[in-house]
Specification:
Elements: H1 6-11, H2 17-65, H3 67-70, H4 87-96, H5 118-131, H6 149-159, H7 161-164, E1 171-172, E2 178-179, H8 187-196, H9 211-226, H10 240-266
Antiparallel strand pairs: 1-2
């Protein structure tokens, strides 16, 4: 019997092995694409519902704890500024450090024990962020503290040391206000202070300090916490004021005491 030619096989309705493989690949791709589309749609719907619930919970917390000063719609009152456009980061900083709600009116909100859980803070932040666009909580890579401490030290000296002291120990400002010490402050709150500019602090936008440079500053502050001062007892890292006071009281006082003792011995 004569061998069957490819043309005869096609005419006889035989299918090439390559065609079978191609059909299997197309079928797998179609099935996988349909599954991915279905799961993505479901995940998106679940995320939307969760976000709506989070915002609703945040609105209730805001109405119960913040509306008396900031207004029911966060439009502001005589007792507190508007929060429209403040963003989630401002809420995370003010509430996450215990500054809000304020215990009493004063020149500056003081750091107090935090009154809400992080989940509740996130809910209020989501509600404020839903009102209008504003600064968002940064990605973890910008608050990881793994930047360049040397660059961060230079940036801190240029932009922050005049108020917070070169060692981040804080200092007094005008009209009863003060620049707080930065030791032990959560990196996300340091970032939030730079972006939102609370109290007398200026706002450092990404045009002033990029997110990477802010991370360098955080790295420098963490370095100060983890490494003791090389000069010995730092006396609170308050600079020449505390050092000069120490010399006047203990140094000169010691000299006077020794002088009196020597005089008494000679008599």
């Amino acid at each position: 019997m004569a061998p069957t030619s490819p043309a005869s096989a096609r005419r006889a309705g035989r299918r090439s092995p390559l065609a079978t493989a191609a059909l299997l690949v197309v079928g797998l791709l179609a099935t996988g694409g349909a599954y991915a589309l279905a799961t993505t749609t479901t995940a998106t719907a679940e995320t939307t519902v969760a976000s709506a619930q989070l915002i609703d919970e945040g609105g209730k917390l805001f109405a119960a704890n913040c509306a008396s000063c900031h207004g029911l719609d966060a439009e502001g009152t005589a007792a507190g500024p508007t929060l429209i456009g403040a963003g989630a980061l401002a809420v995370d900083f003010q509430v996450g450090t215990g500054r809000m709600p304020m215990a009493a009116s004063g020149p500056q909100a003081e750091v107090k024990p935090v009154q809400f859980t992080q989940e509740q803070i996130d809910a209020m932040a989501a509600w404020v962020a839903d009102l209008a666009p504003g600064p968002a909580v940064p990605a973890d890579r910008y608050i990881a503290g793994d930047g360049d401490a040397a660059i961060g030290a230079e940036l801190f000296r240029i932009n922050c040391a005049m108020c917070h002291n070169v060692a981040g120990a804080g200092g007094a400002l005008t009209e009863g206000k003060w620049a707080p010490g930065l030791a032990g402050v959560d990196p996300v709150h340091i970032y939030g202070a730079m972006v939102t500019g609370p109290q007398n602090m200026p706002v450092f936008s990404d045009l002033n300090l990029t997110p990477e440079e802010k991370n360098d500053i955080i790295t420098y502050l963490l370095y100060l916490e983890e490494n003791p001062p090389v000069g010995g007892w730092d006396l609170g890292s308050l600079g020449p004021v505390s050092e000069g006071l120490f010399i006047w009281i203990f140094g000169l006082g010691g000299l006077v005491a020794v002088t009196i003792w020597l005089t008494a011995k000679s008599n």
